[in-house]
Design goal:
Blueprint (H helix, E strand, L loop, with lengths): L8 E2 H6 L3 E7 L4 H6 L6 E11 L2 E10 L2 E3 L6 E3 L2 E10 L2 H5 L6 E4 L4 E2 L1 H12 L11 H4 L10 H23 L1
Parallel strand pairs: 7-8
Antiparallel strand pairs: 1-9, 2-3, 3-4, 4-7, 5-6
Bound molecules: zinc ion.
């Protein structure tokens, strides 16, 4: 069975035929991940194999990617290596999710269908840091970051502009 990463297919079919897919998905094509990234360059590569394990529909997923995130200490872009190997149980509701053994991750499928894109999006999403930072032994960590004290220029300028007509009017009145 040939199947692209973008196409949704019934979980039963994927599992029943033990479909295996190698993929290379542009990060820009991962809906949730691309939403998190300023620079959407790069791709998520890997493979997935569907099967039934212990009575559960399972996707064995191998994903690697190098998304660019922004270090929250120095605000410079940095590559965040993602390398995940996971067993994901595909369930259709929360009751089924409760019955999944601990060694599996759980993915809630909609309408009993799933695409490789959905699975990879979720995995890379989970691997992204909440607060990305360069490593503690990096130059970024050693350097004290000085955030420039930003005076509220636009606001002040705006105020000056608002005042101006009155000031001019004042001048005009004086001249008359
Ligand atoms: Zn940094």
């Amino acid at each position: 069975m040939s199947l692209g990463w973008s196409r949704r297919a019934p979980v039963d079919t994927l599992v029943g035929t033990e479909t295996a897919i190698e993929f290379s998905i542009p990060l820009a094509e991962l809906p949730r991940v691309s939403h998190e990234l300023t620079n959407k360059d790069g791709e998520a590569k890997g493979k997935v194999r569907f099967s039934r394990q212990q009575g559960h529909a399972v996707a064995d997923l191998d994903v690697s990617a190098q998304p660019e995130v922004v270090c929250q200490r120095c605000m410079q872009p940095m590559r965040w290596p993602v390398k995940v190997k996971s067993r994901v149980a595909l369930v259709s509701d929360y009751d089924a999710a409760d019955r999944v053994p601990d060694e599996f991750e759980v993915f809630l499928v909609e309408a009993d269908s799933v695409s490789v894109r959905d699975l990879v999006d979720e995995e890379v999403m989970l691997a992204l840091p909440n607060v990305p930072r360069h490593a503690e032994d990096s130059e970024c960590a050693r350097r004290k970051v000085q955030l420039p004290g930003q005076p509220d220029e636009p606001e002040a300028a705006h105020e000056a502009q608002v005042q101006k007509p009155f000031a001019q009017l004042g001048e005009l009145l004086k001249r008359k």
